[in-house]
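Hi Q.,

Before the meeting this afternoon, I wanted you to have the phenylalanine prediction in hand. No need to reply - just skim if you have a minute. The sequence and ligand are here:
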Amino acid sequence: MERANFGSKIGAILAAAGSAVGLGNIWRFPYEAGNHGGAAFILIYLGCVCLLGLPIMIAEFTVGRRSKASTGKAYSILAPDTQWKWIGYLGVLAGALILGYYSVVAGWTLEYIVEALGNGFAGKGAEDFVASFQSFSQDPVRPLVWLVVFLLATHFIVVKGVKKGIERSAKILMPMLFILILILAVCSMTLPNAGKGLEFLLKPDFSKVDQDVFLGAMGQAFFSLSLGMGCLSTYASYFGSETKLGKTALSVGVIDTFVAILAGFIIFPAAFSVGIQPDAGPSLIFITLPNVFQQAFGAIPYLPMLFSVMFYVLLALAALTSTISMHEVVTAFLNEQFGLSRSKAAVIVTSFCMILGVASSLSLGIWSEYTLFGLGCFDFLDFLTAKIMLPLGGLLVAVFVAWYLKRSVSYDEVTNYGLQKAPYFPVYMFILKYIAPVAIAMIFINELGWI
Ligand code: PHE
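Predicted structure with the ligand bound:
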């Protein structure tokens, strides 16, 4: 197979950022922060991004660019006849499981686009938004229709390989999303009573910090940066030889974190302003945001509609660039490993994720009594992937690169064969070798009681 390269360094950064920036930043980050007490969680999250996220991202880039293969194959190439290939397989499985429930939420954004287009938010208050979200998300049919539509869109793009178009449009859409959330953050902060929300975001309450917070923050960092499942390593296999791994990782990390924090600055002032609890869970953005649109722009006819349509369209597109990256990993795996054609492989992935998606969606409504370890399908998949599989994948990548691969391989990749300086290299290797594995293992052991 001929391997295409990203046309430019900025193309590489944008593609990786496209995978990273998604529902994880705007939907999952605020509700995880809300569930875990706000500012203290955010500080620990930032620590996880710097100490675990960035080094592990560089490690994934190293694996991808060195092997020039998708994650399912990369380890067999770099470490033939060893068991390291299981890192790749674990990632592929995690990708398929995440796609299953992620598409449900992505589907919700489509419902909200249609709702906004019909000016359906007009004249409603906070209770109405809570009630309509509940009745929609628990509906046995409507969310499923949107889930299928979203998965088919992802499927079509992955099969047709119109990734180029996506990358090109990402160059316009990502900055647009960025500007829009900046405007919304300003609007939200000027709502009445917004100060309480800002305090929640900025004033850490360390009495709320328990082991759960650490696992939550670590899981969120891996999820949001698309780490631990080989997504970024697969993308890195398309990096050109001039792409600087450290700089790309830093750019993706900064963009991703910035979007997440800004989302916090939209959601919490708005939530406190209209009296919605910050720990409302996965519904949080769907009940607070329509309020922001109404209250901030309500004075001018059609302005709330315009802003809400724009917002949900951009959110859906941000989700789409993430679902494509997950789908691609699994499709490439079936294609390369079992020799299935790309289109057959994609049909299998899409069908599998539809089944998971239906079960996840129904678990929020009529199937809520069916649980595993006390969690419905949606919550179980979220817990299993974000809090277990991704950090575990990250730990294994760190150990693989730091302990198995020759140090000179890492050095060559990070410095582009000595052409670029990388003064951070010894620190990076030290973190990868000792700090990241020990920190992840300790968080696991503490939280899950594995000893
Ligand atoms: N990082 C994506 C987001 O924040 C989700 C994702 C996770 C994408 C894992 C790919 C792999 O929405």
